[in-house]
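Replying to the earlier thread about multi-chain prediction with a worked example.

Input:
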Amino acid sequence: MSAIALRPAAMRSPLWIAVWAVPIAAVLAVLPWVMDSYRTIQLAYGLIFAIAGLGFNLLLGYTGLLSFGHSAYFGVGAYTVAFMVKYLHVQSMELFVLGTIAAALLVTAVFGYVCVRYTRIFFSILTLALSQVLWSLAFKFFWVTGGTDGLRVPTPKLLGVVTGESEDKIHFLSHGYYYYVLAVFIVAVAVMWLVVHSPFGKALQAIRDNETRARFVGIRIRRYRFLAFLLSGVFTAIAGALWVPLNGLVTPDALVWTFSGEIVFMSVLGGFRNFTGPIVGAVVYNYLKDFAVGFTVYWQTLMGVVLVVLVMTLPTGIVGTAKLLAATARRRFAR
Amino acid sequence: MNYLETQKLTKYFGDTHAVDKVDFQIGEGEAVSLIGSNGAGKTSLVNLISGLLKPDSGRIVFHGADVTNQSVQDRIKAGIARSFQIVNLFDELTVADNVALSIFAREGKTRWFFTLADHYGAIWAEANDILLQFGLDLKAQYLAGGISQGERKLLDVAVAYALKPRLLFLDEPTSGVSTREKAPIMDVISSIVRSNRITAVVIEHDMDIIFKYSDRIVVMHQGVILASGTPEEIRSNESVKDAVFGPTHA
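Result:
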């Protein structure tokens, strides 16, 4: 029988989570002092993609909706920052994040209104198509967006403090900005953890498991999917906004559909049926891609092979497999 | 006054008259069985009343209010709940989660983002109490997809019961379980339904169960109601014998 006992509530208690989370946060805080700047910046990228992965996985892992258009919301975040710099002369990172949330709510509300009426392949294709609409707008309206040349974004002010001018930019990105990203990452993880373990999160999982039954316990399916879509888009857009200072340039590449594929890849790599899966997947993917790019010019082929091998050998992803192995080990020790 | 009544309720699927101008009534607190051969229109009638299907014409009046055009959610608020012929559960949630989710939805708390579900002690206590009533308390932390078929059937009813319905439709609550398990399952369900004075409509094929647990039996045949009466009246009804039981039924 495939009966599996779930974790008791005690293992989801804040104290239990703190036992795991605090040491991990401490390690992440120490890393810039023990790793070289390049690796630290790579880790910052990884944490940013992890925020996007968390948002994406609210739809895939918790609501059962596979989006192939999350580059749209990442791009909305990135372009919001670029537009705020270019047209409003804003420099504050906090204002960038607030502006991004507002813009993301607007765009995801419109896209979500259309997309959540459908499920499965229809939902996926719609999200893909809409993301491509944004990409083509960014590509064609070059007098606004800079086209393929993109828009340059200078080093922002963090917490109202002008940074990066008196210090080396690499040092700024690998220390000051890294800690900023880490703080936003910790907040994002905490918020998403709360959301998926809330009654709302349970309702999303119910919709994922059985839409008909969810309707017949009184859940308004489309409304909940829409809210999940909004939250998912906002998280991904915040990731896009955080990514801009690291990259220094926003181009239509941030909106292109292949980047949506990368977000899917990250979640599958880490395991989309686990809360921590997309986080681990995003960080590992980032290093993996970095390694592949340095290893061969055919790095896309290498990543493709990795994805195929991953799906065939670790269908539950890195975290899913690790949990399975841990459970097996626990059972053996218990005998 | 009838607790529930349908007036000329009609649903066609192409040329098939699934439910054909059906006038169905049920009194408060009654336990009614809906019987008939496959394709008689029993499940379609329940689907129409519960809101899964929209009728082509006719009215559904529940507790004096016209619910014909109400959403499923509004019907649930009015007190109509159902279980399903093919078990419909949240397979990747625990048994306790399945029941608790009904309670969260009933209490309007599923919209809450920023409070942990685990912190609603009263809801989990009520869920555990319901599981205890259904004999599922020891399986509370198991995934719903990993328990036996008989337990899944019970859980399906428990999820509907957690909505505190006034009218409960049970679509073949013992289908797919062994003969040995059927009576215990029906004993549990019947005891809970009667002790809470829930009006119940049961679709069932097992005649022993129908005759044992029903106050009244409604017989459907080819989309219309063929007969309605007490178990004894139905047992001796010649047209029912021919249409449903067949000539060999004792």
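The two ends of chain A are 19 Å apart (CA to CA).

Feel free to reuse this layout for your own posts.
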